[in-house]
């Protein structure tokens, strides 16, 4: 499993290394990635380091020295990795299935998209991410069960402050999911004409996955905050996976909106900025509930 996880990072690391070095492999003519701005080299370097950090995380989960690492140094990158990989591992197969039935992508009668990356790049990279996700889950879940599993069996029910945070997360999740549902059903408020025209089946699928992840995270936070029985794995997993996806992708899309170049009419509008900011804040609120849940139990174990 460790070798599989590490091997799955090679395609992405190789592409990012080539791009940082100045190669245009997989980048078509006219793509904003060929611009002279420093934005993309910085982003490529950052994402290269992020995937390299996953290799370090995999080693920490499988080597004896990993046991000596403080919990937060494993949980924080594990949270981010879970958040970035979950929507990919769920949305990418769905998009492939739609394309197999002639839905999504540049289908007949639809205006072609702006050039960004060659199609094979997405297939190779997202396939690698999917393998990474399953391999990392196969390593992280048993490790977490062995190291922190005793926390899952303790009674839930958090302080009034954390219950308020959980309710706020639920409100944020409903607002974000409502906005995504509105746009999915054909709503156009807050979007430019170019964004409406570009909202194809792939974009709809991404929105659905993001909304479901955000709702799942908030539901898990509510169960942790108001539960009375043993915490169990399902509420904790829902809060972890859903909250991580909301926080990580909300932040990532907000940062991607700062990219230079491209069609100005397709730039993210104020409404989308608010939606993604709300998604990110919702994920962070879920993370606060998770932190209170875990640290509260850790404090309870200390002798009086």
From TrEMBL:
The chain crosses the membrane at residues 38-60, 72-92, 120-141, 162-183, 203-226, 238-259, 279-300. It comes from the Bacteria. The keyword Transmembrane helix applies. Signal peptide: none annotated. This is LigA protein. Keywords: Membrane, Transmembrane, Transmembrane helix.
């Amino acid at each position: 499993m460790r070798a599989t996880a590490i091997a799955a990072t090679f395609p992405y690391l190789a592409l990012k290394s080539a791009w940082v070095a100045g190669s245009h492999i997989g980048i078509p003519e006219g793509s904003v990635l060929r611009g002279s701005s420093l934005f993309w080299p910085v982003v490529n370097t950052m994402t290269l380091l992020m995937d390299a950090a996953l290799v370090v995380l995999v080693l920490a989960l499988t080597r004896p020295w990993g046991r000596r690492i403080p919990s937060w140094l494993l949980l924080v990158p594990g949270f981010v990795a879970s958040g970035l990989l979950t929507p990919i591992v769920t949305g990418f197969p769905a998009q492939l299935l739609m394309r197999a039935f002639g839905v999504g992508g540049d289908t007949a009668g639809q205006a072609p998209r702006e050039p960004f990356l060659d199609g094979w790049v997405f297939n190779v990279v997202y396939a690698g991410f999917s393998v990474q996700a399953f391999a990392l889950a196969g390593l992280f879940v048993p490790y977490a069960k062995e190291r922190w599993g005793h926390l899952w069996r303790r009674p839930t029910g958090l302080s009034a402050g954390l219950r308020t945070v959980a309710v706020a997360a639920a409100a944020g999740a409903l607002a974000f999911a409502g906005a995504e549902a509105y746009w999915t059903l054909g709503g156009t408020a807050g979007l430019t004409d170019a964004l409406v025209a570009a909202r194809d089946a792939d974009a709809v699928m991404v929105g659905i996955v993001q909304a479901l992840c955000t709702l799942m995270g908030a539901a898990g936070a509510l169960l942790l905050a108001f539960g009375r029985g043993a915490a169990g794995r399902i509420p904790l997993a829902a809060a972890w996976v859903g909250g991580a996806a909301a926080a990580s992708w909300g932040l990532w899309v907000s940062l991607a909106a700062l990219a230079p170049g491209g069609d100005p009419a397709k730039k993210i509008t104020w409404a989308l900025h608010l939606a993604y900011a709300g998604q990110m804040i919702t994920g962070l609120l879920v993370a606060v509930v998770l932190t209170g849940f875990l640290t509260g139990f850790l404090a309870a174990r200390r002798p009086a």
